[in-house]
Amino acid sequence: MKTSTKIWLIVAAALVFLGTIMFSATLFFADWDFSKISTTKYEQNSYNISDSFENIWIDTDTADIKFLLSGNGECKVECFEEKKARHEVKIENGTLFINEKEEKAWYDYINIGFGTPKITVYLPKADFSSVYIKESTGDISFSKLSVKDIDLSLSTGDILLSDVKCENLVTKGSTGEVELKKVIASNKFDIKRSTGDIELNVCDAAEIFIETDTGDVEGSLLSPKTFATKTSTGEIHVPQTNEGGLCQITTSTGDIEIYLGEK
Length: 263
Hints:
- By secondary structure, the protein is mainly β.
- The chain is built from 1 helix and 17 strands.
- It is flat and about 65 Å long.
C-alpha cells in the first residue's frame, strides 16, 4: 500500500473517531436527550373545521396519520409539523384537504432531526364517501369508520385499520406492514407491497387481490373463496374451497396462510 494511501486512511479514521467523541460529548451534556440536539424545529398547530365534508384528501411527506372520532360532533386537525413544512387545511367542494406546503431552501435539508411529524384528524362522524392519502414515509391508522372508497398510497410506513366498513380498499406501497382487523369490503381488497407482511384478522371482501415480494400473507376470512395462490420459495396453506369470490394472493419469498373464521 502506498504511503500516501496509508496517511489518508489514518486521517479518515482519526476524523471519524473525533466526530464520534464530539457527538457523544454533545449527547452527554444534553442528558442523552436526542431532541435537544435536533436542528429541525417543530411546532404544534391546531385547525378547527366548521364546514361539513364527505371526502378526505391528505397529501404529505413524513407524517404519521391518525383518524379519531371527536365525540362532540366537531372537527379538528392537529399537526405536529416542521416550521418550514406546515400543512394547509381547508374545505373545498365537500372535501377536507390537508396538504403539506414545504418552504425549504436546499440548505434546510442539511440538518439533524429526531422528531416525527404527526397529523391527527378528529372526525365529527363515522361515515364518509372517500378517504385518499398519499405520503412517502409515515404510518396510517384509523378505526370504527364507514367509507365507500379507501385509497392509501405510501412508500415506507405501516397501515393499521380496525372495525372499518367500505366498498373498496386499495393500498400500494414499497416497504411496510398492512394489518387489517375486522375490515369488511362489499367489493374488493387490492393490496400491493414490495417488502412487508400483510395480515387479515377476521376480514372479508367480495374479491381479494394481494401481492407482495418478500412478506408473508396470513389471517382469517369470514366467507369461502376461490383461491388462486402463488409463491416462489414460501409455503401455502389455504382452505380447500372452490366457491365464493376470487382470492388471488402472490408472493415471491413469503408464506401464505389463510383460514376461515376466527382462530
